Amino acid sequence: MHTSLDHLFPNQSGTIETIEAGPELGRRMAALGLRPGRRIEVVRTAPLKGPMQIRIGHTELMIRRIDAAKICVNLVA
Amino acid sequence: MKRIAILGMPNTGKSTFFNRLTGAGARVGNWPGITVDLLAAKILLGGSMVEMVDLPGIYNLHGFSDDEQVVRHFLESQAVNGLVVILNASQLDRQLALLLQLRALKLPMTLVLNMSDEAKQLGIKIDLAELARSLDMPVTLISAKYGQGFESARHAIEHIVQHHPAARLADTAGLSQDDRIEVELDRIVSGSVSTPITLPPDITRRLDRVLLHPWLGLPLFFITVFLLFQLVYGIGTPLQDGMNWGLEQIKVDLLQPALVHAPLPLRSFIEDGLFDGIGTVMSFLPIIVVFFMFMAIIEDSGYLARAAYLMDAIMARLGLDGRSFVMQLMGFGCNVPALMGTRVMRSRALRLLTMMVIPFSLCSARLQVFLFFTTAIFAPRAAAMVMFSLYLMSFLMAFLTALVWRGKYRSVEPLLLELPPYRFPTFRQLIAQGWQQSQHFLKGASGYIVGGVIVVWALTHYPFNVPPASPTTLAGQLADFMAPLFQPLGIDRLLSVALLFGFIAKEIVIGALAVIYGAGQGNLGGIIAGKLDWVQAYSFMLFTLIYTPCLSTVAVLKQESKSWWFTALAVGWPLGLAWLVSFIFYQSARALGW
Known about the structure:
A: alpha+beta, SH3 type barrels, 2 helices, B: alpha/beta, two-stranded antiparallel sheet
């Protein structure tokens, strides 16, 4: 199922398909391991529409939902 | 002089490596056009003196963040003999990308893989020989924290220095070209790094389950900051008092007897100007050392990044983040270390906005003034309410300032923060932090502080043949001149001279008032209660709360921002705000017939 990262719930994971971020955010994402083809897992989300904690490889990150919406993922059941 | 630059991603232990390699001799270097502090140290390597420069952590050589621009600017303008690239051994799958970009600079390079201990724990195996072969450069595996592998890392750097004796600039084509390195990255990683497919459930995840819990996380965060505050100031404040006591002893037992026969102006200058200036600087040292030792724990542990995660939903609306909030709260003890602590935020705009906000935190020095005034003027029940209203005002002014200035100091850097595994720094790392930051404060701020104290001394003591701070001194004349400004606030001439003293440090305001009113500290309360009604007193407290916290704060604002314009704004804005708030309060209270 195709969706964007911000729609994933904690403990769901997916494979990154495309990233539609500007050059600046896109570069930072790539440097932190967010690249198409990579497997990504949502660890937990902060309350009050706060950021998400995600895991990619050995890296854990916080990402704001607005930025997570720019990452299209293929949901892994 | 040979020069080697140390580069790497954030959270790779780059500074720990630098500190261990160079010892305690690091200095903040002066590089044209660079607005962040770069540590540099000269060490003897392979028979020649080499200057090691610790560049800020970057994610991407072609990125747009402030640190990434600083690194590019440095590499464009400073010739180096070579680069040492530090990467986290357990995250090579993404971090090697930086090395591949740096290779395009065509500078001699060596790769140092740090955190060998963590990689081992995670079961990650790295074929060093294969990695060195495919990268065509020496690779060493170290643990900067525990000091393992430094011998071979030193050898690799010596090798560069000996084989590339001439420093040169980076190939600028490599600074701008956008590269397709992903295929190469994957090829090298799959050829030399083996990673277990499933991660063992480690301590970090178990801790995060509690500390980042959706509902427990925030209460735990507040408890943590509260404990941190209690520890820093519970240990730091008695040390500060001890320092002040020691300085007073030196003044009374050594300085004053030695100056007995000196002419009065000289004696006054040395005792009340120069010595008090130096004393003001010294009195901050214990707090700064203790503050940064605890900050190193909270930062290196990875909890500060988690504070950003926990507070982001609230702070993002103010244009700040959770780390700003931690520093703002720490400012309630003392603004000076809190301002220096903003350095953990790497975006300059975010730092500057946080630095605008922190001085509104009601620090312990201002608390002394307010406690004195409220006990002198208000009944005990009312006094508690007054204190509460002042704390409320402190937060209100901070949020107002953030809202007003968030447009000008808007952070354009994406908030995509790494949440590194929980790590506990070694005692050695704590000492290094405390030492470096106090050195930094002494070098960066002490000149301004001593200078400022001397200026205020001159204002309040000249001419020398009249009592200090009396109407005929320069300060008294200044108060006359400023009277039209302060009259609408209910602040009379005597009190406005006290505000001038308060510019040096709020601790001395009460002592200054005693001098101004010609009273002992014992009966000062009674005199003030007789001269001021509560509206005047509250107006004075509001002004004292909001205007410049102290000279040392101003000096640190300049030291940290490296901008006179920003410093002027960070002094002018609260001054204007203080006037406005006091004016509104005083005039409305009087209009209501109080």
